[in-house]
Write a structure and sequence with these properties.
The chain is of the alpha/beta class. The protein has 38 helices and 16 strands. The strands form 3 sheets. Strands 3-2-1-4-5-16-15-12-8-6-7 form an 11-stranded mixed beta sheet, with helices on both faces. A 3-stranded antiparallel beta sheet has the order 9-10-11. It has a two-stranded antiparallel ribbon with strand order 13-14.
Amino acid sequence: MVLPARPVDAEGLLPLALSRPLDAFAKASRLLEQCPDGRAASIAHQARAIVLRDAGRSREAIAELRMSLRFARASGDPGRVIDAQATLGLTLGLAGRTAAGLAALDEAVRASKGVLAGRVLLRRASLLRELGRYDQALGDLRQAIALLRRAGDTVWEARAYCHRFSILAMLGQAARADRDLAAAARLFADAGQELESAMAVHNRADVALQAGDLPAALGFLDDASRRYEALAVAVPNLPIDRCAVLLAAGLAPEAMAVADAATRNPGYATKKAELLFAAARAALAAGEPDIAAERAAAARDLFRAQRRPWWRVRASFVLLRSRYEAGERTGRLRAQASRIADQLDELGAEEAPTAHLIAGRLAGALGRLADADRHLARAARFRHRGPTFGRPAGWLAHALRAEARGATAAALAACRRGLAAAEEHQQTLGATELRAHATAYGTELAAIAQRHAVRRGDARMLLLWTERWRAGALAVPPVRPPDDRELAADLAALRDVARRLEAAHAEGGATARLEQDRLRLEESVRSRTRRAAAAGASPGPRRFTGVGEILDGLDGHRLVELVALDDTLYAVTVVGRRVRAHQVGPIRTAVREVELARFTLRRFAYGRPPAAGMSNLDDVARRLQEALLGPAAAVLDGGPVVVVPPGRLHAVPWSMLPALRGAAVRVAPSAATWLHARRAVPPRGRRVVLVGGPGLAGTAAEVAKIAQGYPDAEVLADGTATADRTLAALDGAWTAHVAAHGVFRAGNPLFSSLRLDDGPLTVYDLGRLRRAPFRLVLSSCDSGVGAPVGADELLGMVSALVPLGTVNLLASVVPVNDAATTPLMMAFHEQLRAGAGFAEALCAAQASGVDDPVAAATALSFVALGR
């Protein structure tokens, strides 16, 4: 027996279309199959149209709405006609037919009154908002909210609050926007509107972004994405907003990938323009001005055709900025920059401060000092307003303005305040990756002061400003609270997938599905980690107080601090209490010689040394020293040295340099960080952990031999070195030694890993430690290599371990020879047990294998980081 289909309630279809769209579409289709009356048919077609429109299928939606309007007129219900016409007007406008859409909405407004007028006004406001006509939209919403509240129409009142929220947030009125959003969320929850409740969560990301809370913004976007996915709804604003947050965090390549993927999806004509605009901004930030110009021009043309001047001017600015970043410095570009900056200011657009900054710089470069001062003054207004991530730009403009007037003291004061603002923003970010990228304006502010120091020949001033930024940017809390169970589960699943992938590659099996799983899990790990806020994290190094602090704390060590400024490398040396600055040479030469030295060490490690043998190694070392130290090498006298390199020169085999041979060399990210490490208190216990990973013939022997010197050590090897057991053992250890195959991933440095028995232990895993080992030896390939980003920062093993309490770290900067590593490590630990520090122990161990080229090259491949 076939039961008759349950009749569909037509009146519930429209709310359902914005709550559970797929259900609404199915029910509307079923109702139409039942040959309903004209009113019910009109509602069904309108509900189907809303679902189609929100899925980006505008043409089909418009066809459905024309059917809805035809049935509404046939029904003789004027209210039904007005409602269908209002939805048609909004849909036409969103499809790019703005004149026709506004005409239909205007006609619907004139014909309506009461609660229906409130609903129609809301839809017209929605289109006006998309067109950038914010004052008119706010006027419509003010009337709509009053009418809807008076009628008790809570769902539509909530929608009106949401629309007003988005405009207020765009205009920077965060407090008012947040109040509207809270009211909307409460009303949607009471009404059971699932989709619109998800949209309210999505909108909270805008509030968090305006407040500069990027981890919270990413969290809200992830939550909204899950809700949309559960409802099978595609929302084009989601990738647009994610792109904006990623750009604010400095993650330009990822923002570019998100925007590019979104532009390839079919969608609204209006959203196509916005997606192109987002893609252009991302390409510009990623250092691709030509791509940015192409996308910005396409977006501008679409916005012009859609009569959206607010968006058109913003796209024109991205196009102008792409030309500026490509090196154009013409009078024509200056005039355009001046005009666009003023337009953005009048429109209240978020790009206004950056536009004034560029206009001011162009005017100054072309000698138009009055224009430069006017634009820089306008940009400088934003040093006290707006999100925290934007304030350093205001201070940069203030510094440039003072510098143009010759007011050096005022320029340096602005640099100091700007660096403090940049550090304040960094401290709001819990994830290492976000903090490392959020440094662009801080680097530029420090460079202004560094240039003053170079022009004056003031070595102390150069050291002061270099350390002021490096020390502040690096004084950061740990990566992630250690008790995130979902993150731990994702990392465990990722290890399992990586292990199965390795097996599949070895056996020639299928890998496509496993690769998809790996990418999905890596994205989940990144997402969870980025949502971490810095609140509650343990403090980093105390604030740097001055050069005197460094001189007092060196305690017999020599300091070599390298500074990369305007494509030139400088070395600041401190020997005794004398501070000197030395111009070394082009940075590109130093980078080239470092790569050559690392290549040479790799050849030795793999048993393929050049025919000249050690003499070739000596020649490479001399060139490396000339490129890195130049005249500074002459002031070093064989005593212990602390080297502070910029991020681009971190992977240097320092012991190769003739001036540093036989010296105890310590490498640190900043002098202040090194001083902080020297003051660190070791754990009360003297617990030693030795870990040997699989797959390398020498690791088991290495761990076994080292264990003979530590009878009470906890040894994990031969199947017991799993990730969970290793992390538990490492947590809070005094000394740890990990001998395992290391993999550095330049494209995803935080997924660099050490191979353990159950799969790779990544940097993200290490970031979950409550306290990293006080002293750690990473006897593995490339364990000291990171990806340089931001203000001389790195992403890699070191970036995870140092903030978590590791004060001594031995690591390699190239792949090493396993057989030659074992005797080096045994000699190193022998020195440690005798009371030597890491640098002294490494120096002594390096001296023991000088006659064997492979052993010598292996020894030179390791560096001692920390105190």
